[in-house]
Each structure stands twice: as structure tokens, then as C-alpha cells.
Amino acid sequence: xxxxxxxxxxxxxxxxxxxxxxxxxxxxxxxxxxxxxxxxxxxxxxxxxxxxxxxxxxxxxxxxxxxxxxxxxxxxxxxxxxxxxxxxxxxxxxxxxxxxxxxxxxxxxxxxxxxxxxxxxxxxxxxxxxxxxxxxxxxxxxxxxxxxxxxxxxxxxxxxxxxxxxxxxxxxxxxxxxxxxxxxxxxxxxxxxxxxxxxxxxxxxxxxxxxxxxxxxxxxxxxxxxxxxxxxxxxxxxxxxxxxxxxxxxxxxxxxxxxxxxxxxxxxxxxxxxxxxxxxxxxxxxxxxxxxxxxxxxxxxxxxxxxxxxxxxxxxxxxxxxxxxxxxxxxxxxxxxxxxxxxxxxxxxxxxxxxxxxxxxxxxxxxxxxxxxxxxxxxxxxxxxxxxxxxxxxxxxxxxxxxxxxxxxxxxxxxxxxxxxxxx
RNA sequence: GGAGAGGUGGCCGAGCUGGCUGAAGGCAGCUGCCUGCUAAGCAGUUGAUGGGGUUAAACUCAUCCCCGGGUUCGAAUCCCGGCCUCUCCGCCA
Length: 424
Hints:
The protein has helices at 4-9, 11-21, 27-63, 69-100, 139-146, 151-158, 168-187, 201-207, 232-236, 294-312, 358-362, 388-398; strands at residues 121-126, 149-150, 164-165, 191-193, 198-200, 219-220, 225-227, 243-244, 251-260, 279-289, 316-320, 332-340, 345-354, 366-367, 379-387, 406-407, 421-422.
């Protein structure tokens, strides 16, 4: 959420940002409502001030045993007017807030202006694309060959977009989770958290999934809860509504969680295999930091995520998203895409974003820089470190052998009881 | 799920037979003073949001005692709904 005062004094900046992001919002309508709101406030507060004076007078008269009925009758009328104006004010504010929730964050000046995925700019590549002296297979074929990737039964139990992992492949999944958490907690300075997977509507609003992306969320009927699409929601909202004390930033937390996404409207795209599913596991990193430091923190967050792929020796590229591909709440975002030779495509396994104070404002998360200082909105960031199914797919495809085995990356072997390959 | 109790400022804790109570008292914090040092003591001070105002402050007005409604000239105080916490019972990994 943007600061209403900022919108008031920089309407053109906000309009341009929305246009570059491909969002339609009526800023002028918001400004008009804001004007109306301030007019009402001026009037209603004047009346309340009058009432406060009269009320004290009534109290005094009564104490002295004098008659106050005339004044009381007068105040009754005044109070009616006040409550009428209060209603109107409340309605106006509700309307403004509702509209503010639909105003996207402003892209950072370093973000390239563009429309689609094609306008994203590659920052760097890491690792060698391996050459194979046999016909490389996509991960779903390898998964079937070595056993353990069971998509049909997932579909049978839960519908399309769900799958089972079994045996050593399930072990690979668990090894990856443990490895990533160990890396981030032991070497990157994050503290580990176990988090709620079901969250309330206010948390979803806080990080920006609601209202705009509501259709993509699984909702629990009857309880008003949502299944998290990412651990970001629980982690970033952890101190929502609070004022963090001096010295408490930066706060760096990571967590493993399942992620649930309806993927509404994306059928037909990338549906083979396990690169687009309704439920997957992910290790997520979240930072809450002082505003001046947030862009440095974004770079180190990105490095933390890259380390995962480097340790696994998987080639990847990093791209900075253009304005049109940037998500609603983000000011800047890097995607990390791992190369999958079987599919001959780059799979997004991490998004590292800086939201500046957009989320903090929505969830009223504040920070007091020094004792006695005014609270400010901290900046929030998050990045996947990294998403599992696509990483598993990339391992299967990059580490496959001619005779249909998969060589386990050395880093993971200690996590798999020393096992060095999967397959017959 | 059933039965009770409760949610007040950074913390503890009064007020809750409605009226200078944004809120006593205490602790913590800050600023002076004082005392060889420390401790103690004395005086003062310390919340948030929004409107107006200012280059910025100062200043000023309104609102805020879990949240949302209601009663009333006036509510932290009374009434209704919700959320959360605690205790006991039931259930359960």
C-alpha cells in the first residue's frame, strides 16, 4: 500500500508506475475521495470540539445542581449531526482504503521498463550447460525410469497438479530441504522458523495476495482461512501491527513450508511433469530491514539463493524483471532460473524481491530506529531459497546418465546416507 | 465442543455505582540537581493515528483503555456481537 500523502503529492509518479506495471487504477478518484475525506474531517472535528466544551459545561451545571436541559437538547441535535458526518467519513475512508489496496507498488528506478517476460534483462549466468552424448530425457521420463515419481496417482487422489514422490526420490526431496535450511541458518545468518500454513485474511492482505490475487488462493470454507501460497505470508506478517524496538533490525528468518496455489488460468502452460503444480515445498527467506539498507539486502538475498544452486552445481541465470512482469507488491525483483536440459528450458526456482515499505504499510508493521524516535515503516524482502519440484526436476535432468540413472549431487549425499545415485 | 475468568500506556497495575481520566500508583527510560565513586534521594519528562499549521519545528484540534456496533448531551466505565488469552471438563496427534 502506498502512502496516501505520497499519492496526493506525486499523482503522476503513481499513475506512471501503475501504467508500466500494466495495472488499471483510478488515482484521480482516490484523490477526489481524499479531498472529500479531509473536508469532512475538518467539519466534524470542529463540531466535536464544540460538543466537548458543552459537555464539560453540562457536567459543571449538574454538579452545581443547576438546570442543563436547554444545553442538553442543543447537544442532542449537534450529536445527531456529528454521527451523520461520522458515518459519511467512515464510508469515505472505507472506500479509499479499498481502492488503495488495488494500487500497485512503484518500481525502483533501476527496474527496466517493459511489458512481458521477453523484456526481462539477464544479469548473469552461472555454470556450464552440460553436453550429453545421448538423448536427454525430460524429468517425468527419468522419474518413471528410476521410479518414485508418481503423477498418475497424485491426479487420482487429488486431481491434476498433484503427485507422489516415493522411495529415494522422496528422500532426495527431504535431503534438499535439510540442506537448504542448514545452509541458510548456518552460513547465511537466518534464524529458522516453523510456521502456520493456514492464515487469516488480514495476513493475506498484508503481504498483498488479497485482494488482487485472491482467485489464486485456496480458501478454507467455514473458517475464513487461506492455505499459504508461500511461507512469505506467515513470515512477513509475524510482527504485523507491532512497533519493533530499536536494534531489532535487520531481522532474517527462513522457513520450510508447503505452498498451495490454484494456478487459476494457467492451464495448458508448462503442465507436463512437476514444474507447475498446486502443492509444492519451498524454503523461503524473509528479511525485515531498515529502509536505507534494503537494496543492499536484496543483493545479498539473491546471493544466498544462488548459493543453493551453486552448491548443487546446477547451471542457472539471473534476470531482473521488467516493470510489466514485476508483481503487484514488489518494487524490484530478480528471478533465478535453473537450466533443465531435458525440457531445454529455464525454470524459475526463486524470486528475490524488495517490497520497500509497501507490505509493512499494509500490515502496519513499524520500527522505532532509536529510543524516543518516531516509528517508521521498515522495508520487507523475500526470496525463495529455493522451490523444490523444479529443483528436483533440474537435478533429474542435469544429473541423468545414459543408462537411466541419476547421480546425486555430492552436497546432498551426506543427507541421503551416503547414497550416490538413484536408479537400477 | 461444554463451564467459568479476563483483555487498560514499554511493562506491572488502579479505575469499571457514566462527567477536566490519555487515563492514579509503581517499575523501566530520558533530562536536570545533588552526593568522593556506586547505590540512594529531589524535581521535571517520556504513547499512537489523523486534520490544520510550519521550510522544519513550535503550536493547535480530533480520535484511541482488544476489535466492531448500540444506549447517552457525554462511555475505559452500561448493552450486544466478534476475536484472543487463562482455568476446569470433554476430545485428540
